[in-house]
Amino acid sequence: MEKLKDPNINQHIMTFVLDRFISQRKNPALGFKDQLGDMLSAWGGLCYRMLDQKHLASLFMSVRGRWGSDVAKQALRAVGTTALKSNGVYAPVEPENAEMLTTLNRMIHLMRERAASIETFDQLVIIFDSAMTLRMLRDDVTSALAQLQEGFDKWDVDKRYSLERSKLILEGV
Hints:
By secondary structure, the chain is mainly α. The protein has helices at residues 9-24, 32-50, 53-67, 69-86, 102-115, 121-171. The chain is built from six helices and no strands. Helix 1 runs parallel beside helix 3. The longest helix is centred in the C-terminal third of the chain and has 51 residues, at 121-171.
């Protein structure tokens, strides 16, 4: 027996979940309005993990058509923020005040601001690409800093060893 599977099932599920929540968001008795931010954040995380860019584009066209541009922008921003968080470039790289990391942390801050102000799907794609680029840069910088620290540690050990060796030579041992 052949299994039938709708290739758009994940998109349908994400649309259904958002529809249920958005349709109730103005009902204060149910508490949906208070939970909108948390729900959009969780929903954005699922969308980012479950949908490819083609399905995301289609989903956001549906969202804009059903609930208007304000809800669509909120949904885009939720997915954009998730992209940054999932790539580990939402929070500054520590130590935040390290001179080498200043430019990287400035770019992370800029991408957070842009993720919070997304208005179009094309801008969301830019956030996706930037998140991956920043993650690679963060990983490279972190690796380079670790290698530098390892070198400094060896330098200090070698320096202490050389001093001890020099003292022994001077003492005639």
